[in-house]
Amino acid sequence: MASTFQLGLSKPSTTVYHIHLLTHQEAFLFGDTSGECTHLNPSGQIAVAEWQQLAIAHRRDDIRVGLWAVLPNGLRAIIAVTNREGTLPPNYGVQTPVKPRVLSSFVAGFKTAAAKRINLVRGEPGAPVWQRGYQEQRIEDGETLTRIRQLLTKQAQAAGIIQEAR
After folding, report:
1. Considering the domain boundaries, does residue 3 fall inside one?
2. CATH number, position 58
């Protein structure tokens, strides 16, 4: 394995992302809403439990899970990723960090575990639970982070699950 110095990559940095995972066909698979309240069903409760387990399991890895909320049709979260892969040096003509694979792996692991348990409860093994991929937004400034934290806090309160992994 090549060292960071040999590749000419910079030292590790942390990037904060807002991710949004949607259920298959954006169906309200995890519960319903009435007014300002979200009522999670057993599938939604499974999504909560799997997210909590994964957040705890990755505490010492390159992933730090911040505020998050399970919604009737998906999940939103703030995640900090320590990019040990670094960034490419200026002579490569690329100014953005190398996208960390650890984030994609983290999301894939959650989606797989949650789908397996949800489908067992529904009695539908192999049925689609999630849309392919996920949406991510790199958070570049404090103002954007504050706005997203307010959104997630409101959504988590509506679902009765104020959660921030520590």
Report:
1. no
2. 3.30.70.1290
If phi > 0 it is left, if psi is from -120 to 50 it is alpha, else beta; for residue 36 that is alpha
Quick: pLDDT tens for 29-45.
Answer: 999 988 778 889 999 99
Query: Hey, is 125 helix, strand or coil?
Result: coil
Residue 105: give the domain boundaries.
11-164
- Tens of pLDDT, residue by residue over 55-71, are 888 776 788 899 998 99
What pLDDT sits at residue 45? 95
Query: Which of 44, 52, 55, 59 has its CA nearest to residue 117?
Result: 44
d(CA 120, CA 30): 14
How far apart CA 132 and CA 136 sit, in angstroms, is: 13
Number of structural domains, the chain? 1
How far is it, in rounded angstroms, from Cα 155 to Cα 162? 9
Question: Hey, is 124 helix, strand or coil?
Answer: coil
Nearest to 107 by CA among 25, 18, 8, 15: 18
Q: Is the pTM of this model over 0.85?
A: no
pLDDT at residue 8, as a whole number = 45
Whether the pLDDT of residue 4 is over 50: the answer is no
With respect to residue 70, please indicate whether it lies within any of the assigned structural domains: yes
Sheet strands (E) in 58-134: 63-71, 74-83
| Residue owning tokens 């699950």 | 161
Side chain identity at residue 161, one-letter code: I
